[in-house]
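Hi D.,

Good news: the full-assembly prediction came through. Inputs first.
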Amino acid sequence: MKNFNRLIAAFRRLPGVGPKQAERLALHLLRVSSHEVEEFATSVKEAKLSVKPCTVCLNFTEQGVCSICGDPGRDHEILCVVEEPPDVQAIERSGSYQGLYHVLHGSLSPLDGIGPDSLRIRELMGRLKNSKQPVREVILATDPDTEGEATALYLTQMLRPLGIRITRIAQGVPLGGDLDYTDELTLSHALTGRREV
Amino acid sequence: MKNFNRLIAAFRRLPGVGPKQAERLALHLLRVSSHEVEEFATSVKEAKLSVKPCTVCLNFTEQGVCSICGDPGRDHEILCVVEEPPDVQAIERSGSYQGLYHVLHGSLSPLDGIGPDSLRIRELMGRLKNSKQPVREVILATDPDTEGEATALYLTQMLRPLGIRITRIAQGVPLGGDLDYTDELTLSHALTGRREV
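Then the structure:
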């Protein structure tokens, strides 16, 4: 059972996978076809080999510069700052943004030892100061949670001296939501951020 | 992003892994060292190659016959029937059982299309009928949930004609538990199954 227990241990090292789930995942892989297991192991290794951060925005890509940064049809004067690569995919799916991105690869969380130096903030400052085409707006699209808010606040202080317009994505009641089931903080943000109609 | 999305898809095919967790696992693997990723992929492939069901009890093993079935010091006249290989490890850890096992590799769940033919019941019947050393007791140690109970009931009906002693593991209040927080069904089983002191 050495290799079986080693497989369970390998799954346990993944974030958020507990002992029960690691066991279930290992059992699953021992039961499906060898072909399927081979394919799983290959996806893992190939992604690791081919996917690298874009040299401009640090989003994951399989080219040197990602397809968004390399697209001349997009607005190179607006940067949207997000925490993780999947956030870029989520905003792209919304179809309502035509500028570029900057991926921080995390958010400030002092209790977990994640300070400003752990995030890709230096690269963001470099882009804003050295870009050929001056950036006219930075949209802070970090998550609307404690860490995301702290990160947005920190970035605001860092960016203010550059004299660039800084905006934060709107916070309020989500579409399709129910006021009755909305938490107090969201409702308070929705009221404070109310707009003329 | 093709290989990144393919990695997310590979994780999503695992049981109980949702879209958010698949994303987190994929991001994690892209961030740790190549060495660690290589090791993960190797554990998966090696376990699949080397771990097979024991030819006697169907528990996972890296030999033809597992170390439990091959141990002449154990009581070969008692079989403990469990649902999954980790159940064997759990009972072994308790240190209070010296007989052999039989792993069903599942439990009856008609709603999920898992009938008696999907479990290794035929192999159990074969063992009981053809074993050199006659089996004097079968302990039904399937889980104490609906599927496990249904499986135990079905096995009881199948085994009854063989005239072998059939027992079911005791159900009651778990050690270290609090009566106040114990569900009604468990309490009812604990009362019905009460023993003289």
